[in-house]
Design goal:
By secondary structure, the chain is α/β, with parallel strands linked by helices. Helices cover 30% and strands 22% of the residues. Strand 7 and strand 8 form a beta hairpin.
């Protein structure tokens, strides 16, 4: 019988899968740091004989070419994808034998991309699971707008048809194993929140299968917000075939070198948490705390491929950040430094900034003096669903090029939960602005007395 092992990448909201029969294994949608996969296979005594891509990914660099080369595995990629590496081309209806007991059948499920495939793995004559990539997700579907607005309508209609094809051709008991939908910005909406599902469950709960096509399309298209800017680079890189990542430790930089890189306008990234950063940081460094969607937010803000210097409390923190970045960033960090800001500054004065709650902002706005500038750095759809009256709206990823649009005076920066506010506050502080970062959940704003408006 087939067993499915999951390789979770929580920071990007994605999953890869290792499907095996106890002897040989098929890997589906591997991310670039494939040592996680080979270690899992070795732990279970498995030989990786096949690697399969559901689609040319937009949100991470694939590890498929490197993994196939390292293991000698057959590499299954849609025949219609114009890739620049060796692969075994597959198309709708093709079947591939994996060892003596597993059989893989490709199904064309366009929608997330035009050439998207899902893979049905059969064992003992029954469907052991369908691997749906960015097609049918838990409670939603993959978004259809990543290839450009001129294709969105056609892909959205294809996504609806593909979901219905899967629901019509597979038994209700078939487990569903999507790649996206666990926080990935490739998802067209929030997932159903479950960690597992079946075709039958999706028939009952997923809007793509419970609504008519027109109603589904209206809701789908109305819910699409912007996506990380680094996505534009993932497709071309994955068509070319990324190399495996270099995860060896970055060169340690002296305080003099770190300061020189800051003065040269390079991106010097402080990985510490928000409280530690606010209490004292190297002037000119930018805060990207090692939590949540760290890599996505960094890739969303920093020009792709720009030299990065990482500042971490420990070598382990830098190592973790390097691994997460390797999944979306072609180049490794140019340098790193550890120990803390006093060591990085080497006697030079440190900068600080204030953290506040929405109650503090309400008090600042209600005083007799003219209130501070309020800067909302959330995505457009978040802002449209409710915003602070009079706030200036600049999405956090646009701030590096639009900082000059922020009115003069003290700036109170907020987002939805505090992470992006700190990124934006550190960007403004690096430009000499006096800033306060609201480290609070936006859901608390109204109850705290902050005046709100709705678009």
């Amino acid at each position: 019988m087939a067993e499915v092992l999951t390789i979770e990448t929580r920071a990007l909201g994605d999953r890869s899968y290792l499907v095996h029969d106890g002897t040989v294994a098929l890997v589906i949608d591997p991310q670039r740091d494939t040592d996680r996969i080979t270690a899992l296979a070795a732990h279970h005594g498995l030989r990786i004989t096949h690697v399969a891509e559901t689609h040319i990914h937009n949100d991470y660099l694939t590890g498929g070419p490197a993994l196939a080369a390292a293991t000698g595995a057959v590499y299954l990629v849609n025949a219609a994808d114009p890739v620049g590496f060796d692969r075994t081309p597959v198309a709708d209806g093709d079947t591939v034998e994996v060892g003596d007991t597993l059989r893989v059948r490709a199904l064309a499920t366009p929608g997330h991309t035009f050439t998207h495939l899902s893979y049905v793995v059969e064992s003992g004559g029954q469907a052991a699971g369908v691997f749906t990539g960015g097609s049918l997700l838990y409670g939603t579907t993959g978004r259809p707008d990543l290839l450009g607005p001129e294709h969105t309508d056609a892909l959205a209609r294809a996504q609806y048809a593909s979901a219905h094809r899967l629901a019509g051709e597979l038994p209700d008991t078939t487990p569903v194993f999507p790649t996206h939908g666990f926080g990935s910005f490739c998802s067209a909406g929030p997932s159903g929140g479950g960690r597992s599902s079946t075709i039958g469950s999706e028939k009952r709960l997923n809007p793509v299968l419970t609504l008519g096509e027109r109603e589904y399309l209206v809701g789908l298209l109305a819910g699409l917000d912007n996506w990380p800017t680094y996505y534009a680079h993932m497709g071309p890189a994955n068509l070319a075939g990324p190399s495996g990542p270099d995860l060896s430790p970055p060169r340690q930089a002296s305080a003099t070198e770190v300061r020189r890189r800051v003065e040269a306008g390079e991106w010097v990234i402080d990985l510490r948490d928000r409280i530690a950063f606010a209490a004292g940081f190297l002037p000119g460094s930018v805060s990207f705390p090692m939590e949540g969607s760290f890599a996505s937010y960094l890739g969303w803000t920093v020009p792709w491929g720009a030299p990065l210097t990482l500042l971490g409390e420990t070598a382990g923190q830098v190592t973790e950040a390097q691994r997460e970045l390797a999944r979306i960033w072609a180049e490794r960090p140019v340098a790193a430094a550890t120990g803390g800001p006093a060591r990085w500054a080497a006697g030079s004065p440190l900068a600080t900034l204030r953290l506040a709650k929405y109650g503090d902002l309400a008090a600042a706005l209600s005083g007799p003096e003219r209130g501070p500038v309020v800067l909302d750095v959330r995505r457009p759809m978040e802002c449209a669903n409710g915003h602070i009256a009079g706030a200036v709206h600049i999405p956090f990823d646009e701030l590096p090029r639009r900082a000059g649009e922020v009115p003069p005076g003290e700036v109170w920066v907020h987002c939805q939960s505090g992470y992006r506010a700190m990124v934006a506050a550190s960007l403004l502080a690096a430009r000499g602005r006096q800033v306060v970062s609201v480290d609070d959940d936006f859901d608390n704003a109204g109850a705290a007395g902050v005046p709100l408006e709705h678009a």
